[in-house]
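Workshop exercise sheet. Pairs work together: one partner reads the sequence aloud, the other fills in the structure field after running the prediction. Swap roles for the next sheet.
Pair: D.N. / O.F.
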Amino acid sequence: MLIGDEHLGFGYQGLLNYAERILETLDNKEFVSNLARHSTMPYSQWWLEQNPYIFLGGNTDVEVY
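Structure field:
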């Protein structure tokens, strides 16, 4: 991702600059729709229908944060 000066990505402020640039990119509706057209969902429908709490051994009293 090109965002200007080659030193813009250094240090803590550089990390914040990249994070801001990523947020701007994800807010771009054209980018998101283009990405959706050229990519596929990595999980099958079977995978999405599985119980995410199965590893708890049947104890599904889990607080969702």
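Discussion prompt: Residues 11-27 form the longest helix (17 residues). What would you look at next?
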